[in-house]
Write a structure and sequence with these properties.
By secondary structure, the chain is mainly beta. The chain has two helices and 24 strands. The strands form seven sheets. Strands 1, 3, 4, 6 and 9 form a five-stranded antiparallel beta sheet that branches. The protein folds into three domains: 124 residues, Jelly Rolls (Sandwich); 106 residues, Immunoglobulins (Immunoglobulin-like, Sandwich); 64 residues, no CATH class.
């Protein structure tokens, strides 16, 4: 983030990075820049060519750099990030953005106004047809509803083979496998299907069991893969009470703002002590208000990396 290098600086910051791109292993490759998170307003140029931007603070975004990248040459990436302040910059002030409790000047109970590139930036080398996203919804009876977003840069209709597997997340043991023929249209499209897993192991507070759904697309030697973790549970409010899998539960949890002493960068020893205290007190969960880049308190929030024919070059 900006304040790592320039404490107390809020407004506009520029990032530059040079990198080389080798010749792709197959023709028709696409080059995508993936930002894990950047706060708040982002403009991106590659070799002086604008390739897009993003407005937000905590979500990943992907920009297509195929037309701007130079194969076998040095490439120069330039990223402009606006960390809003109380004074308008580009017509934007901090108060006008989804800033949670960030403030200038910092106040007790508030968050430090951090900004800039918060997570990794990667160059993805992908096939012409790729997955954009996956959404998985389950129920207690073993039903698995899968929705896919695809993006094809082919000029004509095509067909691919979807290979779907359901496995236990911890051991990787495959429990269910299906193959489906999938038509592919140029541009963005959607696909969906439903699976049925017999006798699913329910997610419980004392046994948070998870599964992994993996979808692989194969077409004429190219392939892409996307994966998501999921579980089977039913959580609802019934007659004014919390119920998990049909049984009433009592929820105990903690919340911490993690100011140490200013901002939200917490020493590891403090986090370990907080975890121990939560367990000793019998808390079902501990909620921490952390910036996106601080993943230590949420070790179970695994970020699924691109797989299949995707090559990844970490830029920062």
């Amino acid at each position: 983030m900006i304040q790592d290098a320039f404490p107390g600086h809020h407004s506009v910051a520029w990032y530059w990075r040079e990198f080389d791109v080798r010749e792709p292993s197959r023709q028709g490759r696409r080059y995508l820049l993936r930002f894990g998170a950047a706060d708040y307003l982002v403009e991106v140029r590659l070799n002086g060519i604008p390739i897009g931007g993003h407005e937000g603070g905590e979500t990943p975004f992907v920009l297509d750099a195929t037309e701007a990248v130079r194969i076998g040459e040095a490439n120069r990436l330039a990223v402009r990030v606006l960390n809003p302040t109380n004074d308008p910059i580009d017509g934007i002030t901090l108060a006008e953005t989804p800033h949670r409790n960030k403030s200038i000047p910092h106040r007790n109970g508030g968050s430090y106004n951090y900004g800039g590139i918060l997570e990794s930036v990667e160059l993805l080398v992908t096939p012409p047809v790729r997955f954009q996203d996956i959404h998985v919804r389950t129920d207690m009876n073993g039903s698995i509803d899968v929705r896919l977003a695809l993006d094809s840069r082919l000029s004509a209709d095509a067909a691919g083979l979807l290979q779907i597997s359901v496995a236990t997340a911890a051991s990787g043991e495959t429990l269910l496998y299906r193959e489906i023929r999938q038509p592919i249209r140029p541009g963005e499209s959607r696909a969906g299907f439903r699976l049925q897993l017999d006798h699913p192991r329910l997610w419980q507070l004392v046994d948070p069991f998870l599964y992994r759904v993996t979808v692989r697309l194969q077409m004429e030697g190219d392939n892409d893969e996307i994966t998501a973790r999921t579980g089977f549970r039913d959580f609802r409010v019934a007659d004014g009470f919390f119920c998990l899998n049909g049984k009433r539960i009592f929820v105990k949890s903690t919340h911490t703002g993690n100011h140490c002493p200013v901002g939200q960068v917490v020493p590891e020893a403090h986090l370990r002590a907080a975890r121990y205290q939560d367990r000793y007190a019998g808390m079902g969960r501990g909620h921490g208000a952390l910036p996106p880049r601080d993943r230590r308190i949420a070790e179970d929030r695994e970020r699924d990396r691109p797989k299949g024919a995707v090559e990844v070059l970490s830029l920062c």
